[in-house]
Amino acid sequence: MSDLTVAVVGATGAVGRVMRDLLSERSFPIGELRLMASERSAGTVIETGYGAIEVEDLATADPAGIDIALFSAGGDRSRQYAPTFAQAGAIVIDNSSAFRMDRSVPLVVADVNDEAARRHNGIIANPNCTTMVLMMAVAPLHRAAGLQGMVATSYQSVSGTGNSAIAELRDQVEWFARSPQALIDGGWEAPDHSVFTRPIGWNVLPFAGNLVEDGYTDEEMKLQNESRKILDVPELLVEPTCVRVPTLVGHGISASLWFRDPLTPDQAAKLIDEAPGVQVWMDQVATPLDSAGIDDVLVSRIRRTLGEQGGVSLWAVGDNLRKGAALNAIQIAELFL
Ligand code: A2P
Fold first, then answer.
1. What Rg, from alpha-carbon coordinates, does the chain have?
2. What is the pLDDT of residue 2?
């Protein structure tokens, strides 16, 4: 098959760039690749593995003839344009949160619940990047032992918030480097910001996303609600905390997990290692830098829970732009080849 027409919507963004690269890296069979973004980028020419392509303005682009549309241009754009693209005949794989909890839209982690993708009505949702990474480690354990509850804390890189957040971290690191002693003694001067309300350079923000209910953020509610939907455990107990850290790529999650049938750390390590798309690193601790630019999720520090007995604690880290977003979207598309 070599005549598919594929559109990348949000093609100039942090995830869109990785989508473009991965399509050609994975030799996705494309007859015509179309790139769409805002009016600001329309007319820009981008070199791709499928030739030099001019970016179209999403607002005026004609969706006729598109077979697969990969959307990563924010929830508002997805809500406005994804249904139109689907009606025009495209299978839309949407990286935003717009449709994830819609009962008629499958929420798919490739290699975890591929079968759900077949039940689509034109739109398939790509999960949140933190949930995606954690599910790669947790799903093999759930299948064997029945997950009942988890306490999960994320350490999320700034690229999860897009290109502007990458720029803000870089600028603030430079800003603080001018007077590093103030970071130790106090008296630092607040840098400019437009993305994060508190400084992210040389700092940690114990609050990722926007406040939605009972003191929890939307990122935290996604971790609960999307995990329940993907694993098909509506009553799953999830205690989430989402933290933004000053890394560029790679979301880490520290999780303690309790199962219907208790698992030993050795059993857990074996189950994870045998699953596709995930590696166990026991001799060396896997860090966000190790995960950057690779497809697999890495899992370290698998150990017995110390307080509430019978569970397993672990650390999982994955490239949020790849498996956490672009790679998973393309893996879903590959299910339809
Ligand atoms: P543009 O670069 O033209 O603004 P990121 O997540 O890195 O911030 O990227 C967001 C992506 O979504 C970019 O490709 C951006 O295009 C696109 N985008 C943002 N707003 C719009 C819009 N109103 N219409 C179409 N695309 C948009």
1. 20
2. 59
CA of 219 to the centre of ligand 1 (A): 20
**Sign, CA torsion 83/85/91/92:** negative
Q: Which two tokens stand for residue 275?
A: 């699953």
CA distance 301 to 43: 48
Collapsing DSSP to helix, strand or coil, 151 comes out as: strand
The DSSP secondary-structure symbol of 275 reads: S
User: Does the structure show a pLDDT above 60 at 1?
Assistant: no
List Cα–Cα distances, 303 to 230, 282, 312, in angstroms. 24, 10, 6
Q: Are 246 and 276 in contact (CB under 8 A)?
A: no
Per-residue model confidence as pLDDT tens digits over 26-83: 999 999 999 999 999 999 999 999 999 999 999 999 999 999 999 999 999 999 999 9
Percent of the chain with pLDDT over 90: 99
CB 27 within 8 A of CB 45: no
Nearest CA to ligand 1 atom 14: 10
Nearest CA to ligand 1 atom 20: 38
* In the chain, where the domains are located: 4-127+326-334, 131-157+204-320
- Active-site annotation, residues: 129, 251
CA 308 to ligand 1 center in whole angstroms: 45
CATH number of the domain at 131-157+204-320, out of 3.30.360.10, 1.10.760.10, 1.10.630.10, 3.10.20.880? Answer: 3.30.360.10
Strand pairing class (4-9; 30-37): parallel
4-127+326-334: CATH, from 3.30.460.80, 3.40.50.720, 1.20.140.10, 3.60.40.10: 3.40.50.720
Atom of ligand 1 nearest to the CA of 40: 3
CA dihedral sign, ordered 117, 336, 98, 255? positive
pTM > 0.85 = yes
